[in-house]
């Protein structure tokens, strides 16, 4: 077993820069982390809205007929519509492209400008969706929402990793994922109550409500300080040193400042940061930038988060029950993420990755067995007993908990902390782009896959959980307690990745 990264801040040769968790760092990371609210709110809101009959009858009448009028439709297939899934998935296709542009904005103008731009775009998209009268308005609004998410998801994890003292980097960075979970549960609760509004216009409040988290990040970003890393990168060294003293709460920042400057000098020698990613010494970084977000999406989590009400409705739950089940899974998601915040810098990244993978695998097999035994392949469950509903919801909640303290937050944390400064912005864009690409893919094909694969869909995702758990076991090093400027030692110590890094690495990065 390659116990790479068993070293932590105490006995790994780390410089251990002086500094403490200052109030300004805590406050700014909380504000920046709320960028996750807009991402989470959208994840939670779309599935609930697409299960509301007034919304379906107005924009997707064919789906409405399959769900409520055509008794011959297989239960698994009642939501099978490529146009309906495009409503959900178009956002993530837009986010894929916008995060590539956001890389240039983040590198040239700073992290906070990218957050501000993202908040403004999301605000415009939410307004259009809330006022939509035609499908094209829904899609345009979703595309603007996607542009906003691409900007914030590219810049917020970088901002958090650069502002946080290395000893608390994991916990503060997971603040982003924690806000994602808060956004999901708030959206699920609002969907539950808005669906009860007489007149059938509650879906407008659900979609338009995205303006509130957009306002939080838009206004908050105006008051955020920039990171010392970004200021040095833009030639503001004196201001960066003062900023570093301010956020660390100590005057002795010389060692950390020198390493930041050295990293920036190496960064300045890079003429083409995107082309630079292809260098052999960055192969480990690029591999994780691709595979971690890919595996994160193929855990199957967004089948639950995007389409929880639709999924529960498809396996026999009534509309109210399906929306409430989504609220329950959302609450579990929040509390499990708190466990990750507590444990990520205590237990390490690898331990959470591996435990979460085993937990998710067990629950996916259990859910597949439960649905298969009750529904078979014809999708006719008959009368659902209460115990069955409880078993399915409990299994899904345990699965969500496993994701929420492992691949959920760590899928954003680990890529954001492993990149040296000269490729950090462009590599983070690769991570977000891959995440958005496969989020789009899963969102677009899920309902069709459910229709054709039926309960076997959960076995499909369980297979990928096995693969990704083995990948972590053999290929992902431990990064707990390593200052972000010294992350190169992690790769040099790895029995496989060292052959790419050690022979081709120059400088502190």
UniProtKB/TrEMBL annotation:
Domain called Major facilitator superfamily (MFS) profile: residue spans: 28-480
Localisation per UniProt entry: Membrane
InterPro entries, A to Z: MFS_dom, MFS_STP/MST-like_plant, MFS_sugar_transport-like, MFS_trans_sf, STP/PLT_plant, Sugar/inositol_transpt, Sugar_transporter_CS
Pfam name, any one: Sugar_tr
Name this protein carries in UniProt: Species-specific tRNA processing
Residues annotated as transmembrane: 21-41, 83-101, 113-132, 138-160, 172-195, 201-224, 288-310, 322-344, 351-375, 387-408, 429-449, 455-476
Membrane topology: Multi-pass membrane protein
Keywords tagged on the record: Membrane, Sugar transport, Symport, Transmembrane, Transmembrane helix, Transport
PROSITE patterns named in the record: MFS (PS50850), SUGAR_TRANSPORT_1 (PS00216), SUGAR_TRANSPORT_2 (PS00217)
Family statement: Belongs to the major facilitator superfamily. Sugar transporter (TC 2.A.1.1) family.
Keyword Acetylation: no
